[in-house]
Each structure stands twice: as C-alpha cells, then as structure tokens.
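Hey, can you fold this?
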Amino acid sequence: MPSPAPSDAPDKPRVVLGVGGGIAAYKACELLRRFTESGHDVTVVPTASALEFVGAPTWAALSGKPVADDVWTGVHQVPHVRIGQAADLVVVAPATADLLAKAAHGLADDLLTNTLLTARCPVVMAPAMHTEMWEHPATVANVATLRARGVLVLDPAEGRLTGKDTGKGRLPEPSEIFEVGVDVLGRASAADPAGADLSGRHVVVSAGGTREYLDPVRFLGNRSSGRQGYALARAALARGARVTLVAANVDLPAPAGAHVVPVETTAELHAAVVAAAAEADAVVMAAAPADFRPAAYSDDKIKKRADGSAAPVELEQNADILADVAHDRRRPGQVVVGFAAETGDAHSTVLELGRAKLARKGCDLLVVNDVRGGAVFGSTDNEAVVLGADGSALEVPRAAKGVLAHAIWDRVATLW
C-alpha cells in the first residue's frame, strides 16, 4: 500500500500525486519523474479508472512504493486519512471532470478522494478533458467552488485532444505543472497554506521581444527571451491568479494554466495588451516592444545595391504601450508595472534614468535592469531595482528570475 509517512526520507518534501482516469494519465509519469529526481518523496494515488490507462506496476516502479486505489489495502494503517495528513503538497494530474465534481461536493468513494478531504496542505489540480466538458456549467461551477476553497485549479491548455478533436482541455505540459507545484510548495506557510494571495485576481503579463518587418525575411528586433515575463506568469499562477500572457515571439513552454496570446509586432502587442487590460487588476509589461518600425514594408526581399552602398531605412515611432495603459486605466485600483532596460549614459545613472521613465510613463512600479554588456538577456537569473511612484526603491539581488517575479507580485499586492 502507499506509505503515508515515509520513514526512509523524513526530510524530503512529501508529495501526493493523484492521477485521474483520463488518457492524459500517461503524462503523469513524466511529472512523477520530475518530482522524484528533484528530491521529493512521492506517493502515487491513482483512481481505478487511471489504472486502466497506466498500470500499478508502472507507478510502483517509478515512485519506489507500492500503489493502491482503494481504502482497504493496508487498512490497519488507515491510509484514507494518513496519506492526506502527512502530505506537504497534493498534485492531481490529470483531474477529470468527474474528479473535479467529486472534490467539489466532498465525495469520498476511493483513496484519492479521501486523501483530498484529509489534506491540509496546498492542493494543485491540473484538469484535462474535452472542451465541451470543461465549458459545461457544472464543471465551471465545480471549479469555482474549489478555487473559493483555496484549491489551485489550473486552466487546461489548448491543443490536440483525444481523437481528431482540438480545443481547450489539454493537460498542461508536465514540466510546467511541476514548476507550479514546486513554487506552491516553496511558498506555503502556516498562515496561508495554499500561498494563494492573488486568488480572484486577473493579471496581464507581457513577455518577449517584438519584431518589425522590413521585408518577407528581415526584421528589426531585440534580445528579449521572454524568460522574465514567463517567470512572472508562473509566479502569479502559483499564487492563485488568472493570468493572460501576451507573448511576443517567445520559444518557451506555456506556463501551466495561463491563457497565452501570441503576437509578433508592437502594434499587435499594443492591441492585445490594451484589450486584456480592460478587465485586469494588474498589468505587468515585461515585454520589450520596439520603439520604432520601418516606415515602409517591402513585399519583395530588399536586394544589395550594385555599388555596395547601404539602402536607407526610414523609421517611424511605435505607440507607447506602457504609457497608454497607465494613463487610460479602465478598472479602479488597477496596478501598472513597467520594465526599463538601461545602461546609463554620460549624464545620468541607470536609476536616474529609471526614475525619469517612471514619472514619464505614469506607472505605479518600474523594474529597472542594468543591461550593460548584455546582462539579463536570455539568462535564467536576474537582478533589479523595483522603483515605486511613492519614491520607494526595492533592491532584488541576483537570483533566479522567479525570485524577482515574486518580489514584484509582493509589491503589487501591497498596492492593492
């Protein structure tokens, strides 16, 4: 039977991996591998239906523990109570419509649903089902109920479903579910077991760098990878927010649960951010939009000149997205956060330029990066100073970009 409190690994975080009876159950094997290889003690609790897709020997071999789905195996150790009581985190992936309904209504007819009732730790559920099932009023109501109780229910991804169907309902990538789980586990505290202080909030995050096309093969762009914006999205999701992520030319896995809006140009980024900001509690502009675009686009590839001279490129200015959003807030109490990649110059320091930009843009917070020598771009680490319109300055030392992301959300939360 599953061990409720592993004695061989008392210092390892104890994770319960619940597996619902959907075709995406096979993807939970990858999620299990990520948790075990990163030093977590994992107990797998599948439903009977899940075992029709992936057998108990597979889960036992990958977790190093025996696996059961009923409350009778090893009943003398009271597994239907002990597993939930001992857990530091419960992750359910996939969470089917049936499992969401049972959890919302407090039903307990197997080991997993009993575990969900007895767990007093953070619970993360990653739904997977057909679009019609996800959008059905019953499922919508069940998800709302669970979220109101502090359960972190991720939105499913969009893509290929069972058979020929496509749409919203696909299980998010296991790597992204893992990132959310680790983030939630790291932030959980006795005061706020779920760490979901952004629950009920809708936030918009932009990420990446825009492209302004000269001709069918060439464009003006920048070095932004989108990693900081994606870290902001993941951190907000782990804290319970609904996230709209406007991604400009980013080649990264979509954060589990985020609604991703892909864009290419600054004009597209402007339109997407302004539209999403109308119903957002916070807008964080981590993307790097181009300040200028070519005044004319060539339908044909621009050829080299015979005399070797360079063809002139006339530029025109793009709209200022951050300023437009900051000065046209349609939602009361909305917090607007900008980013500034600065190098300083002969007349001003990086922070002096940042404070001037903060005042000029009209945002509440400005995250200032010193990017001399190409620092920050493409890196997994970051350091910055978060300037406030109130004159405050928060220095965030170099660390993983997720650390800076949480520091930013901490400041946003204080402004709410």
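Oh, and this one too while you're at it.
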Amino acid sequence: MTDLLDEQAISPGAPTPGLPKVLGADSRTRLADGREVRVVQLNNAATTPPFERTARAVTEFLADYGALHRGAGPRARATVEAVELAVDRIRGFIGHPADNGLLFTANTSAAINLLARLLPLGPDDVVLTSEIEHTSNNLPWRYNTPARVLDVRADDAGALDLAHLDELFAAHPGRVKLLAVTGASNLTGYCPDLAALADRAHAAGALLFVDAAQLAPHRRIDMAAAGVDALAFSAHKVYAPFGLGVLSLPRRVLDRQPPDPGGGSIDMISDMGAVVWAPPGERHQTGTWNATGIVALGASCAAIADAGWETIEAHERSLVARAAELLSGVPGVRLTVPADRYRSDDRIGTFPFVVDGLHHALVAAALEHEHGIEVRAGTICNHRLVRRWIGVPDAEQARIEAEIAAGDRLASYGIVRASLACHTDEDDLTRLAEALTALTTHGPRSTYLPHPAEETYLPG
C-alpha cells in the first residue's frame, strides 16, 4: 500500500532541507490605512498553522479513506494501515513507553479530564499541580477527582520552587499520588527539568503527568528516558489541524470500566445487560476515531523528525535571544519575565508583556489593524500569575470579578503574549518591535470601540 504519510509518495523529489514549510506563511492582510502587508504570526502558542506536508498528506488520505475498524475492503484496509502508521510515528515523536497505552481525544483539555476520571484517586489522596499551570491542568484535578489538590509555588518569572515541591512531598508522605506539571509554560515559556521531577515523584510513590501542549512543538520529548508516566498534547499546536488530543498513560490504569462507554468499548453484551469489555487498550477508544486528525498529526511528527530537532531547537533558541533583546529595548514596554531569564533558563519562545497606559486588548487590536501582527491578550489561562505581575489587591480583584460576572470581560487585567514557532523569522521580531515602538510613541492611530462581551476592541 502507498505510504500516505511519506513525503516521497505525495510529492516526488527529495524533501526541502531545513525547516518544514507551513501553509499560509505568506498570508497578507489590509491595514486600517489601506496598506497590504504580510501577516506576522505570533500567536503560535494558541494555534500553529499546518505544515504544507501535512496538508498534502491529508488531501491524499481523503481521496481513498474508508471505514476505520468498521468494515472490510481496500479503502478500509488502506485507512487502517495509514492510521497505524501515523500512530507509530506519534509514539516515536513522544518516546512512548512500551508499557503505556495511547488514547485519542478532542484536545489536551479533554485528555487531561479523561486521565483525571481514569485514575483511582480518593479523598485522602493528594495531587500536586503548580502556580504556573494552564487552567486545563488545574481544574480537571479539582472537579473530576475527590483528591486534595495543592499547588507548588513559583517565582515571579514562572519557575517552579523545587524546595517547596520537596516540602509538599514531605508533608504528605505516601499520600501524593500524582505530580501534574506543564512541560513548557504557555505564559512564560519556562521548561522544567522533567527527569528531575520524575525522580522526585517516583521517590515519593507518585506518578508524573506532563501537560505537553506547549512542549511538543518546541522540544524533543522522550517519555521513557525522562521517566514521564503520562503525557498529553494537541495536534493543533504541532502544525496539524484542530480536533485531536493525545493521551499516553500506563496500561494498568486502563484496566477498568471506561468512564465514557460506547461503540467499540465492548466485545459482547447479553440480553440481561452483562458486558464483556474490550481489551483495556481498546475499551476507552469509543466511537469512530478521528482518522484524518491522526494521519495529519503523524505527518507533522514525520516532518519534524525529518527536519531534525537540532535544527528546530537551534533556530528557536536564536530567535528567543533576539526577541528578548528587541522587546526589552522598547521604551514603555515591560516584559513580565525579565529578558535575562530567557538567557539563563530553558524557555521556549513565549513572551508576555504589558504596554504602559494601554489596555492589553487595545494593544492587540492596534497590532492587528495597524501593523498586521497576530498576538494574544488576556490572562492566557493563568489568572493568578498575571494578577501577581499586574499587582491587583484583594478589593480590586473582587470588583473586577463582579464586573466580569456582569458581562464586562474587558474589566479584567491582562498581558499581551507574542509566541514564536519554527516558521518565525527575525523580520517578524523586528516588525513587532517597530510596531510597539510606534504604539508607545504615538498611541493607536485609529479609533477603537470596546466590545466587552468578546474582550476585544474593534475599529470604530
């Protein structure tokens, strides 16, 4: 059968050396003053554009795809083989442990919620998360388990306080069942030492879970080598389309009744309702899988592997150093993570900042409509760390919460985030620095009207 994830099968000739090409890298937009410019894509921590190779793989796959695990025939067989190949590539991409199972969900949030419902946690158990976690690695443990959830402290630059982590393990001997941490912060770019965290967790009898949504597109992952027990990430942050989350977890956790039973979760059911469950590795994959999403992610994993992590990481580290230099030199712009921490720590290219005197959402609007630059503005799913940066006292926090509850999302404090990817270049960083300089020097050139329900400003 044709290898649907093989670049050679899709486009004859040798792959282009260097970094993989993304679809829409030359997208253009018309600014408020009528000029047409190339879009600067600096919201990659939210969503990356798909690789050109991934888009071609999907198009090729759709021409012949059929029933997945639901029939016989050449199209069904081709689909099964393509998916199996993609799954193997995804396993290799994360260094999947041999004794782990792999489940597919809608996204990282869904994967973490599923893991929370699968783990046998009780009210006497403790789950450790941290102050730098995305809410997707905080709320599931609080709302989908009866366990006590405690947060490891972090410094103002978003680095974990390992001494406090040790204190929490010591204060709850034998009760900590899980350490759930980010592999790379979506807000600060901070990357903890996963092997060191695994050693601490295992010494305490706990599992290590890693939210790798931001780590996966930026750093080589080897779960087995690092001792990571469970891990989740999303395809749409790894240059593939929306709609697929990946969850790797110990197979022993799967040997239980599925929390979401359905088609494919059983081998037999009697007239009286007795159930013979499918094998543990299959019973939790209910319904028809997102075969297209799996094939797409497999293609992106293959593209990254072919480019080489050394090439990708070297490109990003160079850009991170340049971005820290440029952004820290713009008067009126404050990096909430000091520039020198991007030089001393292991951090991906994620830069939070505030602009003196301007609402974060207004800054984002001006960057879009006056400069063609995409960023993200808000609390970026980590309200506590952003509150610390802004310095919001309790009384002010209560007032803000009341206004948000009444429908005014613009009442919230926030920051602006610029996030890099493998298709980012130095020209993108220069344009951002020049745009911010113009904004801090002259203010917004256009008139903008607030839209509180959407937490944004639009040209008036």
